[in-house]
Each structure stands twice: as C-alpha cells, then as structure tokens.
Design brief:
heterodimer, A: 509 residues, alpha/beta, 18 helices, B: 310 residues, mainly alpha, ABC transporter involved in vitamin B12 uptake, BtuC, 12 helices
Chain lengths: 509, 310
C-alpha cells in the first residue's frame, strides 16, 4: 500500500539561492514528524512547497497514492493540509471569527460554525477573545487563532512552524497536549522546531535538514539528542565543543560599576486609558546584562520603546549615564550610544527591499566611517558590511543581496551586527532569539555577552525564560506593566519566577 | 426662514449632480476593498459615456446604450486589472495611463462614430420617473421620487454592494484580500480571481457614471465631459471610509455643494462666478481634512500580491 504522504525529489531555488535540494519523505497518518535544522536550512521553504505557496522546480507530492497538484493554497486546503506560519497570516482589521471563516464555502459559515469554533477553543483550552480585532490581540492569542483556523478546516496534515516560540511557558504544555490529541485522531503533524526537548516530547520521527537537503529521518525515541544536533550542524562542531553554552558562565561583578540606564517611576497610559506601564523603576549598570522576563504582552515591548524614544512615557524619568534623556529625540538617543534590536525585525529592524550592506549602514550613514569627502562612500559601506558579514557568519554572504532574500535568523544577525557596532552605552534587545536555531541563538548570546564585557549596559527582554536566565546577571520579572521582582538567576527556581510572572495585579505591591 | 421650495429644488439638483460621482465612488470602493487602487475612474467615466452615446445613437434605444456603456467599463476595468494584477505595474501609474488613453481614445472614436455631428448628436436617453403622490411631497419629493431610472439603480446597487461587502461570505473574502492577500490566499480564497472581479465591477460602476451623464443629463457625448468627477470620487471614497453607503453619502455631499454653487451663481450675479466654482473642491478639501484624518484604508491596497515574494 502506498504511504499516506509521499514526497519525491523536490527542488526549489530562489534566484541564485538553492533553498531545497532533492527532498524525499514518506509519512503516514497519526504520526508527528519534527523538522529540525538551522536557520536557512530550508524547513519553512519545504513546508511552503507542501502547502502550495511555493511551486517546486522539480519533484512530486503524492497523497494516498495520487499526485497532488499543489498549484494553489486553495487546492491544498481541499486535500486537508494546513499550516501555522511563523509570521502569522491573519487579517488585522477583522475578528477571530471572521479570520477563521475566510475562504470557506458558504455552507460552512452558519451559526453552527460559530458554535464549533467555540467548542474547539474549549477542547484545546485556548483563551481567545472573540470580541476584539486581531490587531488588538497579544501575539500568543494571534497564534491560537491561527491554530483554530487550521483545526476548523479539519486538516489531515498540519504543519506547525515554530509553534511554541510565542507561547508563555504555562501555555506550552496544554498546547502540546492538544497536538498529541490531533495525532491520536489520525492527523499527520509536522512540527518545525529548534527545541530538542519539545521534539523529544512530541515527535515520533525527526527529519533533519541542512543547506536544503534532508540529512536523515530518524526515530526520536532511539536517537540521542547529540546525534540530532550533530546532523543538523554538519561538519561544524556541536554546541558542546563551541564551548559557550556549557562553559562556566561568567557573571560580571558590576556592583561597583556606574549606572548606565536608570528608569524611574515611568508610567505609560495608552489613548484608550489602559495603564501599559505602572510606576516602573529599574537600573542597568555599565557592563551588566539585565534580563526582563515575563509573559508576552505585559508591557515589555512598550518599555523598550519608551527607552529608545519610539514612545513618550506619560510620566517618569529616564537617565542615561546620569544625563536625563526623558524627552530626547530618537536621533539624539542614537547619538548618545543606545543600540536597539527591535522585536519585529521585518517591520522595525530592516528595510527588506534594501541590500544587506545598506541596511547595515543606514542607521549611522552620516558617521565618518561611511563618508568620504562629504558624500556617501559605497566602498566603505561595502567593506564594513563585508567584515560584519564575515564576523557574524551571515549567509548568503553577498552584501549586495536584498535583506528580504535572507532567512529569519540571518536577518536577525544583520540587525544585531549593526546595533552592536553602534551601542557604546546601552544595548536594548527584544526577543533576539525568536525563531533562531540553537547555533544562531548561542551566537547571538555570545555577541551580547561580548558587548556587555566591553562595559555597555544591556537590557535583554525576552519571553524565552531559559535564554534570559542563561545570559543575564540579574533578572527582573515583569507582569501587568510592573516589575514584580528582581532575582539572581543563579539562586532562583523556575517556580519562583513563574509566580512572579503571573502575579495578579492586586497581589503586586 | 428657509425657503422650502428652494431647498427642494437644490436637493433635486443635488441628486442629479451627485449621482455620477456616487457611481464612480462606489466603483472605487469595490476596487480598493479588493486591494486595488482604481485611479482610472475618470477615464472609465468617459468610456461609459461614449459607449452609452454610441449604443443609443446606433439603435435609438437607451437600454442598449446602457448595456454598451457598462461593457466599455468592464473592458477598461479588466485592462487596468491586467496591468495591476498580472504585470504588477504601479497602480497609480497604471490608472493615470488609463485616464490619458481613454481621454484620447474617446475623443477620437466620437469623431469616427458621430462624424460631422460630433459634439452635437443628440441621443435618446432616460426620462425621469414620477412616483404618483410621493413626487409631490414637499422638500424631498423632487429629489427622491422624481428622478431618472439610473438614480434608483444607484440606490439599489449601493445597498447590494453594502450587503455583499459587509454581510456576505464572499464579501468577507474580498475584504480579506484587500487587507492581507497572503492570509486570504492561504485560507483558500482565489485572490487573483477576486481582484479581477473587483476591478471589472469597479470599471462597470465608473462607466455607469458616464452613462448617467449622457443618457440622463445632457443626451450628447462631449470630449472630456467627465470634468474631474472621477477624481472627486476618489475623495468621496476616503470621506466615506471605504463603505459603499458612506461613499454615496460623501458623493451626494459633493453634489450638494455643486448644486448650491449653481444656485448662488444665479442669485448673486455681482460676485464673480469663479469663486462659486471653487466651492465643491474647497468643501472636499475641508471635509477630507476634518473627517478623513482618522480614516484607514484597506491595509494592502495598492500593493501587488506576489505569492512567492519573500
């Protein structure tokens, strides 16, 4: 008998970039297959070919023995294939319900459809607000809407692209439980992830990809994690031997260092009257990494925007190296040496239609190093960018390539390379490891450590608790727009932090 | 004390002058809700006007003229759609090119069709429908119940368009295309088909504005007779917040300003009439500044959709 899904010889190129190279796979119903690989290994491209978003250059996809013509996503939905993207595909101006119903035949959009959406929601323990538009939702809720959208379409193949990266720690377990339920019901689930422990927990087999090729499809239960990561990294040494992750963490003693950043009693009230930040006070010393942990949507992003000048606080003061910058313009804060790695690298970090070298230069284009004789020096830009590309191992390594041609992880490296170069007093990073694989995450963490060791204060905001604990000298926990506690990452337990992260407003004084 | 007869009179003229703008604005709303700018409204009004005049001239039937006008609009809409959707030409440039093309083409063809009579060939049109009793109502009677059939067609189409966009399932799909075509595509909406449909209907609606000018107002085709109505319609779209009903109200508001300025020209001959001519445009500017500030367009309008774009 033919296998449920048979993928043969898929090739796909984007211009000169070979994203997929002869990909083959057999899979059956009721199976969970993890797709593991570094950034740019072709995981998302493979998934996009499966769902018909990209047309393969060569190769064939068979479902239940019959070739599937994946000419359009609509066709693929008929075959019961659904995908949850890393970058959500939701219509911001519409509600959850409208988003779920888009594109369905009219017969499936009646009153019972609405009832079924709510039923699914409670079956999977999803907290979704049906009264607000998607733009007003926190990231985690948007993802739940995406998942509901796929579930509502009775998918027999569901592809999850980095599904847990936006979830709060408390939401991960119920989410994985839901996925297992799907698998038990006969669904074939592809689980794209960098998190080996999650793969171990959820997947039956793991498909390891590298440079667009499948390096192996292995049973999870009998394959040691070390072997998976070795396959994924190829010739490169594994994280063990890179020596940074497992090496004894060097915590900087910065107790006597001067204050780099002092935020005192900052309040932020948005136009609707909601208190986003409430009397928030924190200090980052020079050379210190202060981690901000917390569940997504508790004011972390807004805090970073207030410090970098993208938003003006309602009240309170901000000092950089003892000078008040509470009402300084963004430009003067940049000139004062504040570097900023924003959460959304597509919208805020990069101009996707400019080349990599232009992206690296444009924030500081008027600096002498990019100028010659009062004009922009293309050569200087090219050279500085080429050096950064080499230093940060950005691939593909052509500085003239548009930023949009790079994978997410490499785009993040471009932003980081630019901001690290310019941050001489303070570096604010928000979710720097979002969607990055293990190798890239370690690389990013190392760069941030190096910056701190050179005496720059670092504010490290992330919802990935392990990363925060790993890198920070001190960790402040945020909930409901306040700092609910500051802990020493060496002497704390996950339970303690979990309590602080979920502290209800009335319990926080 | 307001003169009720005068007011009724102004409102009747408002309906007549506002109808072409309203047709074009409705067409613009349909296109923009599908993610496409239709800057070619002005040219499409001319296409509809010429089609209507030629059809009625050749057959003597206003209804056939109406059909010819609509077809000219559909074709010009599909041409714009091909440029915007398939060729992914900048939609502002494509629309302006279409306006220039149609302005020249209609002038040329009108001379070919009407020959020596060009500019003076009267054609059969629609006459106004008087509803018994209702048309005699004070103030609203002449404006609402004593209009030509196209005015009632406009009201019907506006309600249909509102129902389609806001209440029907396919309308939800179309709005999704205008907001986020990739999301719509992934949800199984045939994005390109939807956009071609929207731009074709948009062209047909704009053409109806021209049909109204010829078959209900002046009964002749004149070069450049659209006289900027397609551009005022673009303002009406924004003022009406991309809602079919809103756009029609905005268009009628511009029609009202126009009607008032005509009245003022007659009642105050000592003031240079050019000052009054400014009024509708001045009003549209003020209305946009005051009311249009917070308007938000469909998020993806004007951005060509490319499925494999990374």
């Amino acid at each position: 008998m033919d296998p449920f899904l048979k993928v043969t010889g898929i090739d796909k190129s984007f211009g000169a970039v070979r994203a997929l190279h002869n990909v083959n796979l057999l899979a059956s119903k009721g199976e969970c297959i993890a797709i593991l690989g570094e950034n740019g290994a072709g995981k998302t491209t493979f998934a996009s070919v499966l769902i018909g978003l990209y047309q393969p250059d060569n190769g064939e996809i068979k479902l239940g023995g019959t070739p599937v013509s994946v000419t359009s996503p609509a066709k693929v939905i008929e075959h019961g294939i659904g995908m949850i993207h890393q970058h959500f595909s939701l219509v911001g101006a519409m509600t959850a319900e409208e988003n779920i119903l888009i594109g369905l035949p009219s017969t499936k959009r009646g009153a019972e459809a609405r009832a079924r959406i709510r039923q699914l929601c409670s079956d999977f323990d999803f907290n979704v607000d049906f009264d607000i538009r998607v733009t007003e939702m926190p990231v985690g809720m948007k993802q739940r809407v995406e998942i509901l959208k796929a579930l509502f379409r009775d998918v027999s193949i569901l592809i999850l692209d980095e599904p847990t990266s936006v979830l709060a720690p408390t939401e991960v377990a119920p989410f994985l439980k839901g996925v297992r339920k799907l698998v038990a019901n006969g669904c074939l689930v592809f689980f794209i992830s960098h998190k080996l422990d999650e793969i171990r927990e959820i997947a039956d087999r793991v498909m390891v990809m590298r440079h667009g090729r499948v390096e192996g499809v292995l049973p999870v239960a009998t394959t040691p994690m070390a072997q998976m990561s070795a396959l994924m990294m190829g010739e490169k040494p594994t994280s063990e031997t890179v020596g940074m992750a497992k090496a004894k963490k060097v915590r900087n003693d910065t107790s006597s260092a001067p204050d780099a950043l002092v935020v005192s009693d900052v309040c932020l009230i948005d136009p609707s009257g909601a208190e986003i930040l409430q009397d928030l006070t924190l200090t980052v010393k020079a050379g210190e990494i202060l981690g901000i942990a917390g569940i997504d949507g508790n004011g972390q992003t807004e805090l970073s925007e207030v410090i970098t000048g993208l938003r003006r606080q309602t009240s309170g003061a901000i000092h950089l190296n003892g000078t008040e910058i509470s009402s300084a313009s963004i430009a003067s804060r940049i000139a004062d040496g504040i570097g900023f790695v924003p959460e959304d690298r597509h919208a805020e970090g990069l101009v996707l239609s400019l080349s990599v070298e232009e992206n690296m230069a444009f924030r500081s284009i008027s600096e002498d190093r990019f100028m010659s004789g009062g004009l922009i020096s293309r050569r200087a830009i090219h050279e500085i960018a080429s050096d950064a590309i080499a230093a940060f191992d950005i691939r593909p390594s052509d500085p003239k390539l548009n930023a949009s041609a790079l994978s997410g992880g490499n785009q993040q490296k471009v932003v980081l390379a630019r901001e690290v170069a310019r941050a001489c007093n303070l570096l604010v990073v928000v979710q720097p490891t979002k969607g990055l694989d293990i190798g890239a995450t370690e690389f990013v963490q190392n760069q941030i450590r190096t910056v701190a060791q050179s005496g720059v204060g670092v504010l490290y905001i992330s919802t990935e608790l392990e990363h925060v604990l790993d890198i920070s000298d001190r960790v402040a926990v945020m909930a409901f727009g306040r700092i609910t506690g500051v802990v020493d990452p060496e002497n704390t337990t996950l339970q303690d932090i979990g309590l602080l992260m979920t502290a209800a407003p009335e319990e926080v004084q | 004390m307001i003169d009720l007869v005068l007011l009724g009179d102004v409102l009747a003229v408002t309906a007549r002058l506002g109808t072409p703008i309203a047709f074009a604005a409705l067409g613009g709303v349909i296109a923009e809700r599908g993610g496409l700018y239709n800057i070619g409204l002005e040219g499409q009004i001319l296409a509809g006007a010429l089609g209507a005049a030629a059809g009625s001239f050749a057959t003597g039937s206003a209804v056939i003229g109406l059909g010819c006008g609509i077809n000219c609009g559909l074709i010009s809409g599909l041409l714009l759609g091909y440029m915007s959707i398939r060729l992914r030409i900048n939609q502002l440039v494509g629309g302006i090119a279409l306006n220039l093309l149609l302005a020249g083409l209609t002038a040329f063809l009108s001379r070919q069709i009407f020959g020596a009579q060009a500019g003076g060939a009267r054609v059969n049109g629609f006459s106004q429908i008087d509803f018994p009793f209702l048309s005699d109502l004070p103030v609203v009677g002449p404006s609402l119940f004593s209009q030509d059939p196209l005015f009632y067609l406009l009201i019907g189409l506006a309600i249909a368009a509102w129902f389609w966009l806001m209440k029907s399932h396919k309308g939800l799909d179309q709005r999704a295309v205008g907001e986020n075509p990739k999301a719509a595509d992934l949800a199984g909406v045939p994005v390109f088909r939807m956009q071609y449909l929207a731009i074709a209907v948009s062209g047909a609606l704009a053409a109806l504005a021209g049909v109204h000018l010829v078959l209900s107002q002046v009964y002749v085709f004149a070069e450049g007779m659209s006289a900027g109505k397609g551009f005022i319609a673009l303002a009406a779209i924004i003022l009406g917040r991309w809602s079919p009903i809103g756009a029609i109200c905005a268009a009628l508001f511009f029609g009202f300003c126009d009607a008032v300025q005509f009245k003022l020209q007659f009642t105050s001959p000592e003031i240079p009439y050019q000052l009054f001519l400014i009024l509708p445009y001045f009003a549209s500017l003020i209305a946009l500044v005051v009311l249009g500030a917070k308007a938000s367009a469909p998020a993806s309008v004007g951005l060509p959709y490319d499925r494999e774009h990374r």
